[in-house]
Amino acid sequence: MTDNIPFLPAPKVDALLDYPGLVDALRAAFAGHWTVPVRHHHSIPMPGNEGDQTLLLMPAWDAGKAVGIKVVTVTPGNGARNLPAVQGLYLLLDGLTGEPKALIDGKALTVRRTAAASALAASYCARPDAKTHLMIGAGALSRPLIEAHRAVRPITRTLLWARDIRKAQAQAASLAAAGIEVEVAPELETAVKAADIISTGTLSQEPLVKGVWLKPGQHLDLVGAFTPEMRESDDEAVRRATIFVDTREGALKEAGDIVLAVKSGALLPERIAADLHNLARGQHKGRQSADEITLFKSVGTALEDLAAARLLMERAG
Fold first, then answer.
1. Core-most of 40, 59, 233, 316, by most CB within 10 Å?
2. What would the mean pLDDT of 79-101 be, rounded to a whole number?
């Protein structure tokens, strides 16, 4: 790193990217016409039985204005090492000259923009009066998703469930210290039935949310499973819901909740109602009725990274 290229660490990313502002930036980006090639996705075999490591290369550009690329690794075994599964670095370039403008903590940028994308989807798909939010998973995405949904809906009750109740309790204590009261849910089915918005942020290989548990008016926000083999919802949940995605290409290629449902016949690709481009451009209004069950599947797109990085640099001066 040369002295004239600033590095923005995680604390600065978190401090400067508030969720209302970031949601607005993503809304404008999805309404625009930036170039986003399909991301490069590579599986790297790891020693032992911890599962493959994933390498992601994610470029995007607004021609003549900004170019960015993110390099990310997702390492399932990092939990046992007391490290976050997601690690990465973002490089922002001047769109006119190609000069490097900044290096940004990729993990913090990813977590922040991912949560904001879910909040953006919820602003179209969740009921305006949604008050109870269930967070499934107590990992790195749990607090950002809880905070982001509170930025777009009048959440007054937050539930948190995780396979390891000790992790859920520790995260609840951390959130309480930040002024957000969270109830640790001992049983998943009961928590799902109580929620208006259900977010998932896990590395699950098997469905966690069962379609038979869902009630009219709920919004399901699937964030964690990011490979064709992973899934956090079952076929019945997909059958019962109106389906929204961040990008159609990414969801149909990489999102197990979509890919496996298509493979089983539970979902026809043409039944995907809209992606975030359609919603932000006013081509689809999102939720059609108070009783509709909506499902948003997030895979992630480099457009979100570039929008977040540009907003970050504006605010950092």
1. 233
2. 91
